[in-house]
Specification:
The chain is mainly β. The chain has a domain of 140 residues: Jelly Rolls (Sandwich), CATH 2.60.120. It contains one helix and 46 strands. The relative contact order is 0.15.
């Protein structure tokens, strides 16, 4: 007699180990998990295809209902202005005069209020760090009114190789040999104090919650994590202490803050700081990531977040790729890991705008007019002007078997019917997959299609007579306007023959 089984695995994706060894889903593309269940990721809409160069470093700020995005390339600095719907209203070139062009330029941006000049500024730093995280080449720090369109100008302060961070009201610049330059309060043009806080190059800085007496921040060097705590002007503004002197960082772009906790990728494991530095456990796809990330292009790895779904994305070049083609995803809310291939040929930069709620990403595909910036988590398709392209999305359950469980038995499984339950738009397909044993090749059934609205009783369920000793179920959406969220989908199964299938 067939028995109903819920087709639901543990949330997240397991790439490490074998297909049979685990209870998580075993394959997916453009799929995330919410409330423990898989659902399709959001689509994207093009903002502009007129960006002149590939973008390595970006930031977006909101002022008076408009978004001001700054995007840096090898020889260009582009400002894109968008309204509160994410529609472009302006595009300006803001590259400073005398800027040192380099294919290895990697940008960092900050916003800063300058009380001396009475303006909200965008601060920018670009140095040739893209192919070498430990490059010692120093470059100037630039400034300009955030909402203006004019070219940025130099602050006149000493150049740095690492980057910049604002611990309001102070600007800290950093680089070689642990050198940190601290500006006067609210004045990025004047350096007040210089400190050497570690022995190696500092590559990233982020603000943290202060102790109540002033600002504080974290600095990442090639081998350390350092805390900066405000003291007083007479004591040099900040005191520095080493939180971890035996850390690592894969990319200066891999550090991100999420709800006051700091996450980044080390050279061999993911790490976090929530008062202490510790490893983020990952038994699902740790080896898959570190075995396949193109380490020669490690500095192209960048992080951004999608707080609506509790996600941190690390986009990275996979295999022989030289640009970011895939993303490793940690879901903080679900406490699970998964991954996906990025759309098109990949994305070179991404940024989540806190006020606007949507992340923006820039692709690596050169069009006839330039590179495209996309507003992600918008709709369910990839929309570029009048062109609407469906986004393929699928997930595959863990392998089901009668060989394991409370009453294991050496028998194949026969499925007679699948009763699908989805929040669904557009056709979905089901493929029954499986093997005769854990080392046998995978066999796939015919592809069964079920529409979002059944026009007859036969379309309400999927009838089949597939039999496997190890069986999994792949659901896929690949139509324009397609969307799904898994519900309580059931399979009616029963034991098949008792013979060992070779």
């Amino acid at each position: 007699m067939p028995q109903p089984v819920v087709l639901k695995s543990k949330p997240g994706l397991k790439r490490d180990g074998t297909r049979f060894d685990g209870e998580n889903y075993i394959d997916s593309q453009w799929c995330r998990w919410q409330r423990g269940l898989p659902r399709k990721m959001g689509g994207c809409r093009s903002v502009t295809s007129a960006i002149p160069e590939r973008v390595y470093g970006m930031r977006a700020d909101s002022v008076n209902g408009a978004q001001y995005a700054h995007l840096g390339g090898a020889s260009t600095l582009t400002q894109i202005i968008m309204d509160n719907q994410g529609l472009i209203t302006g595009l300006n070139a803001r590259i400073p005069a005398g800027f040192a062009n380099s294919a290895d330029n990697l940008w960092q941006f900050e916003s800063f209020y300058d009380t001396v000049g009475g303006a909200l500024l965008v601060l920018a730093h670009a140095a040739p760090n893209l192919s070498s995280i430990d490059s010692t080449v120093e470059r100037p720090i630039y400034r300009g009114t955030l909402t203006a369109s004019a070219a940025l100008t130099s602050t006149g302060t000493p150049g740095q190789s690492g980057g910049i961070v604002v611990l309001a009201p102070y600007l800290l610049t950093f680089g070689n040999s642990g050198r940190v330059e601290i500006s006067d309060a609210n004045d990025p043009n004047t350096i007040s104090t210089t400190a050497y806080v570690t022995g190696t190059k500092i590559v990233r800085g982020l603000p943290t919650r202060g102790s109540g007496s002033g600002p504080s921040g974290l600095l990442w060097s090639l081998d350390s994590v350092i805390r900066a705590t405000f003291t007083s002007a007479s004591a040099g503004f900040f005191a520095f202490d080493t939180i971890s002197g035996d850390s690592s960082i894969l990319s200066s772009q891999s550090v991100i803050e999420y709800d006051g906790i700091y996450y980044w990728l080390g050279v061999d494991r993911p790490l976090m700081f929530n008062g202490v530095v510790r490893e983020i456990p990952n038994e699902q796809n740790l080896n898959d990531f570190y075995d396949n990330v193109n380490f020669a292009y490690r500095q192209k790895v960048y992080a951004y977040k999608v707080p609506r779904f509790g996600e941190i994305w690390w986009c990275y070049p996979r295999g022989n790729a030289t640009e970011c083609t895939h993303a490793l995803i940690y879901n903080v809310r679900e406490n699970t890991w998964y991954d996906t291939q990025l759309l098109g040929q990949g994305r070179s930069a991404g940024y989540f705008t806190k006020v606007y709620q949507k992340p923006f990403m820039v692709d690596v595909d050169l069009t006839g007019t330039g590179y495209t910036m996309w507003q992600h988590e918008t709709g369910v398709d990839q929309i570029n002007g009048s062109s609407v392209q469906p986004i393929q999305s699928y997930f595959e359950t863990a392998e089901l078997s009668l060989l394991v469980g409370p009453e294991p038995r050496d028998s194949s499984i026969r499925i007679s019917r699948a009763e699908v339950d989805f929040v669904q738009v557009g056709d979905l397909t089901l493929t029954v997959k499986g093997r005769s044993n854990a080392r046998a090749p995978i066999e796939s059934s015919e592809v069964f299609t079920f529409p979002d609205t059944a026009s007859s009783p036969s379309e309400q369920v999927v009838n089949t007579k597939e039999a496997r000793r190890l069986m999994s179920f792949k659901f896929e959406s690949n139509v324009a306007g397609g969307d799904y969220q898994l519900g309580q989908t059931l399979a009616l199964i029963e034991p098949s023959d008792q013979r060992f299938a070779s």
